[in-house]
C-alpha cells in the first residue's frame, strides 16, 4: 500500500492546483508588487470579510514607500548576488545532509521490515511536532535565538549520531538510539533553520 500512501501527497497537490485559481491574490502582493490598490482592498474584503481595512491598507502603503527604491530580484539574480552566497551554501549543505543522513542511519540500524512504516510515521510526526512547537515559541524567543539554538542542537545531535554509528556494531541498542537522534535532528531543524 506504499503507492497509495505516496500518491496521497500528489492528490493534495492536485486539489490545491484545482482550487487555488479561485482564491484571491495576497493583498500585500497586489499592492507592493503589482501596485493594484483597488485589487488589494477587494482581496482584503474577500479574505477577511466586510469591514474597514484602512489601517492595514495604510500600513501596506508605508511599507511600499519604504521599499520603493528596492529592486525585487528573481532567483537567478539572488544566486549571482555575492552577499548571500554564505547563506545559500549553508542552506544547501543542510538540505543535502538532511536528505542523506536518514538513509544511512536506517540502513545501518538494520530495522525489521515491519518497523519501517512506523519509522516513517515517526519522521512525519517529528516534523509536525517541530512545526507546532516553533510556531508557538517564535514570537517569544525571536528568529535569531531559534536559528542559533537550532544549529547548536543539530550540531550536538550529529556528534551524538556519529558516536552511535561508530559504536553500533558493539552495542546493538545504539542502532535504535540513532533512529531517535534522527527524529530529534528533524525537530531541531524545524525549530530553527
Automatic annotation (TrEMBL):
Keywords: Membrane, Transmembrane, Transmembrane helix. Residues 1-193 form the Major facilitator superfamily (MFS) profile domain. One of its GO terms (molecular function) is D-glucose transmembrane transporter activity. SUPFAM superfamilies: MFS general substrate transporter (SSF103473). It is found in: Membrane. The chain crosses the membrane at residues 6-24, 118-138, 145-167, 173-192. GO terms for cellular component: plasma membrane. It comes from the Eukaryota. It is a multi-pass membrane protein. One of its GO terms (biological process) is dehydroascorbic acid transport. InterPro entries: GLUT, MFS_dom, MFS_sugar_transport-like, MFS_trans_sf. PROSITE patterns: MFS. PANTHER family: MAJOR FACILITATOR SUPERFAMILY (MFS) PROFILE DOMAIN-CONTAINING PROTEIN, SOLUTE CARRIER FAMILY 2. This is GTR9 protein. It comes from Loxia curvirostra (Red crossbill).
Amino acid at each position: 500500500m506504499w503507492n497509495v500512501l505516496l500518491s496521497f501527497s500528489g492528490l493534495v497537490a492536485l486539489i490545491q492546483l484545482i482550487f487555488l485559481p479561485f482564491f484571491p491574490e495576497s493583498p500585500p502582493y497586489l499592492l507592493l508588487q503589482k501596485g493594484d490598490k483597488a485589487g488589494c482592498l477587494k482581496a482584503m474584503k474577500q479574505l477577511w470579510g466586510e469591514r474597514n481595512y484602512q489601517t492595514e491598507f495604510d500600513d501596506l502603503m508605508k511599507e511600499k514607500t519604504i521599499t520603493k527604491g528596492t529592486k525585487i530580484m528573481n532567483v537567478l539574480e539572488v544566486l549571482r548576488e555575492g552577499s548571500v552566497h554564505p547563506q545559500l551554501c549553508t542552506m544547501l549543505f543542510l538540505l543535502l545532509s538532511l536528505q542523506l543522513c536518514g538513509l544511512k542511519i536506517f540502513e545501518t540500524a538494520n530495522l525489521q521490515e515491519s518497523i519501517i512504516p512506523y519509522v516513517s510515521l515517526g519522521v512525519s510526526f517529528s516534523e509536525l511536532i517541530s512545526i507546532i512547537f516553533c510556531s508557538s515559541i517564535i514570537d517569544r524567543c525571536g528568529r535569531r535565538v531559534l536559528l542559533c539554538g537550532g544549529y547548536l542542537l543539530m550540531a550536538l545531535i550529529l556528534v551524538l549520531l556519529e558516536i552511535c554509528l561508530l559504536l553500533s556494531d558493539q552495542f546493538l541498542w545504539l542502532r535504535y538510539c540513532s533512529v531517535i537522534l534522527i527524529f530529534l535532528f528533524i525537530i531541531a531543524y524545524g525549530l530553527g533553520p
